[in-house]
Amino acid sequence: MQITDSHCHLEQFPNPEVVLAQASAEGVSRVVTMGQDESSMRQALQLAHLFPQVLAGIGIHPVHVVTLSAEQLAASLRFLEDHAAQADQIGETGLDHKWAVDDQQQEAQLRMLERHFEIATQHRLPVNLHSRRCLRQVMDAAIAFHRDTGLHAQLHWFTQSVKLIRQTNAADIFVSAGPSVLYDEQAATVACAIEDHLLLLETDAPVEIGGVPGHPQRVREVLGKLATLKGVTQKQLAQQTEANFLRFLGHAETD
């Protein structure tokens, strides 16, 4: 059985090699590590080069759009532009209205998101999206990106609203479920509303969830919880989510 953690931050662990071995022991055979600024993008690409089971997403986190200095932000964007061809996807990008507290900051995040979409389109890469406190805006942007380019979008940490999931299902947008489904009944209910062919798994490790430190190996717990709720075996759900992930990347397009 093979499982993918489709969204984590491997460079934030002291020893990524040990983390990968621990995850592998739980059947987690592939990990996507997401860059957030110049330093973490560089590390993401290095980890993908060192470890065949690691894929790299590179992008500028929306929080950094409003917290980095102008010089740091420009350097991060240059790195993204110069190295996008080496990545497996573009992200983590998106909007975050917890940190963008006024019109100017929100507009800056939106402009940067649009630049990420342009880079993804240029290199024919899918995007991985963050949407704290602006779920609908990011969802609408993802839908437009997919409609206009044929490339795929993943909404990360998006298990808050069944109503919105109905719209992502209709628009063929991927949504990833994480360890919040283990502790939050609403998140579990929303995750079960994701169409089977659009469901991905993630941990966002090392973010702590439910008082437990984040780790890519926890994606196995997410798989087990959702398999139970859906009434299928873990093997069946693992096969489905692996096929989904390949389709998200554009490696195995299906009708």
What does this structure look like?
It is a single chain. With 255 residues, this protein is α/β, with parallel strands linked by helices. It has a single domain (3-249), classed as Alpha-Beta Barrel (TIM Barrel), CATH 3.20.20.140. The chain is built from ten helices and eight strands. It has helices spanning 16-25, 38-50, 62-67, 70-83, 103-123, 135-149, 162-170, 185-193, 219-230, 234-249, and strands at 3-8, 28-34, 54-58, 89-96, 127-132, 153-156, 174-177, 199-201. An eight-stranded parallel beta sheet has the order 1-2-3-4-5-6-7-8. The chain is globular. The two termini are 25 Å apart. The relative contact order is 0.14.
Task: Sum this structure up briefly.
It contains ten helices and eight strands. It is α/β, with parallel strands linked by helices.
